[in-house]
Amino acid sequence: MLLAIFALVLVPNVAHAHRFAPSSLQIYEGESAQYEVLWKTPLQTTSNIPLRPALPEGCDIKQESEPQIEGTGVVKRWSLDCSSLDQGLIGAFVGVDGLAQNQASAILIYSYLDGRSWQQVLNTEVDTVTVPSAPTAGGVFGSYTVMGAEHIWAGPDHLLFVLGLVLLVVGFRSLLVTVTSFTVGHSVTLAMVTLGVFDYPVALVEFLIALSIFVLALEVNAAKAGWFARFPWAVALGFGLLHGMGFAGALGEVGLPQGQVPVALLSFNIGIELGQIAFILLVLATGFLVRRYLTAWRTRLEPIAIYTMGGVAAMWCYERGFSVLGF
């Protein structure tokens, strides 16, 4: 029942998968406390209260650009003069207003004059931080791990695919091999796309991700007797390559810190895996409760999750298909 309710909760957000990526506040340090600021936030929000950078008093805006739409986000740039502050933005409070009202998160990236960078995830609990004098690898690792976990939990299409794998596979050992194959698949393309080995058409990949969920729902519904059920590890590996491009798109919107790309890439992937494992444990626990206390209802409850998964995926295919065609 919980699986079915979880799937049904996703229906109101059918048209918005991947459109609520974390906002990004990037600050580039220049000479004499001069700064270039880039602010990117999703077009669609969950509240009438806008998300806005919170910069310290004493910083004057020298130049400000008009908002521009880039993909599913709005980008704004401006130049700051913080020479009235003793150390510029070092030691000053920087944050984002409106995170709590929108139940959103943001990534703050501060690039120092010497090429180093520092990152911090801002959320509903911590929306303001002090800019440190030097970045640490531990800070990068923690920030990108949290961001990876948040991304997979905010991406219902990826979670629905994982749900399909759990429903398809019989036996814990087979499930472990299948999930590991999915991990290997999306880790490979996540790294390759992020490092610039190859590029891909975003709209087409988003459509194919939705199609993979729909096809998987059909196989689960077909009494688990098809080719997918016989070789689930191969299916998970192949579709994992596809889903990795979707993960890379989210990471590309935030960017990677110079000099700490391996740490950021590794920690983001670890965050994805932790979020994925937590979701799988939730599904398995729900399945245990159903078998233990709702045995008579089991055959009636499972189809609800399957048909809802297929229906949501079909609507994603319809919407994203039009995007591929340019409508």
UniProtKB/TrEMBL annotation:
InterPro entries: Put_HupE_UreJ. The chain crosses the membrane at residues 159-180, 200-219, 231-251, 263-290. The keyword Transmembrane applies. The keyword Translocase does not apply. Keywords: Membrane, Signal, Transmembrane, Transmembrane helix. Residues 1-17 form the signal peptide. Pfam families: HupE_UreJ_2. It comes from the Bacteria. This is HupE/UreJ family protein. It comes from Aequoribacter fuscus. The lineage of its organism: Bacteria, Pseudomonadati, Pseudomonadota, Gammaproteobacteria, Cellvibrionales.
